[in-house]
Design goal:
The structure holds two protein chains of two kinds. Chain A is built from no helices and eleven strands. By secondary structure, chain A is mostly beta strands. In chain A, the strands form two sheets. In chain A, strands 2, 4, 5, 9, 10 and 11 form a six-stranded mixed beta sheet that branches. A five-stranded antiparallel beta sheet of chain A has the order 1-3-8-7-6, with no helix packed on it. In chain A, a hairpin with a 5-residue loop joins strand 4 and strand 5. Chain A starts with a strand and ends with a strand. Helix content of chain B is 0%, strand content 49%. The N and C termini of chain B lie far apart (36 Å). The chains are: A mainly beta, B mainly beta.
Chain lengths: 111, 115
């Protein structure tokens, strides 16, 4: 499979703690994107990181990309109950027309 | 600027009927993607279209499924003679250009239930 694989599959933390999710992929990418999905809803784009970038920040979100290891991580700092959702990484492969999604990490933030 | 609009949000069909799912991309977006999501799983790519053209349908089942994006009007994903296994959430996404440098904007999805 060319999909990203997220790790862990599920994560439960206390409000205020940091949450780290990892994504691994198999082939060369053009960019990697992280999305969030609340239960029963559509996906919301969080961050896009290009293959020549190593780190990006957006508010409480920090994404890293290591192309040598074919992996990325999403860090959510100072988590809130409202962060409870599923988080997906999606890779845009070189020469591909679409995004390949992983199976997601289900994050639960306990108030 | 309205987001990606999908309708209906929920669709129930009996086995053997046809399902038509509609997607209106964001204004100014000419690239449309359809994905399918089974419960507790990630999204699986189905088809990528630009106006009046199917660019990549490598994820579409060979039979019963078709998609179009006409010059005027929404993109349509059509499933003929639905079976129970077609029950899933179908998401449409759009982008202003290809995905090299931009994200995809997703609709809220159509949840198809085949009874």
């Amino acid at each position: 499979s060319q999909q990203g694989e997220e790790d862990p599959q599920a994560l439960s933390i206390q409000e205020g703690e940091n949450a780290t999710m990892n994504c691994s992929y198999k082939t060369s990418i053009n960019n990697l994107q992280w999305y969030r999905q609340n239960s029963g809803r559509g996906l919301v784009h969080l961050i896009l990181i290009r293959s020549n970038e190593r780190e990006k920040h957006s508010g409480r979100l920090r994404v890293t990309l290591d192309t040598s290891k074919k992996s990325s991580s999403l860090l959510i700092t100072a988590s809130r109950a409202a962060d409870t959702a599923s988080y997906f990484c999606a890779t845009r492969l070189v020469g591909a027309n679409n995004l390949f999604f992983g199976t997601g990490t289900r994050l639960t933030v306990i108030p | 600027n309205a987001g990606v609009m999908q309708n209906p949000r929920h669709l129930v069909r009996r086995r053997g009927q046809e399902a038509r799912l509609r997607c209106s991309p964001m204004k100014g977006h000419s690239h449309v993607y359809w994905y399918r999501q089974l419960p507790e799983e990630g999204l699986k790519f189905m088809v990528y279209l630009q106006k009046e053209n199917i660019i990549d349908e490598s994820g579409m089942p060979k039979e019963r499924f078709s998609a179009e994006f006409p010059k005027e009007g929404p993109s349509i994903l059509r499933i003929q003679q639905v079976v129970r296994g077609d029950s899933a959430a179908y998401f449409c996404a759009s982008s202003p250009t290809g995905l090299e440098n931009t994200e995809a904007f997703f609709g809220q999805g159509t949840r198809l239930t085949v009874v």
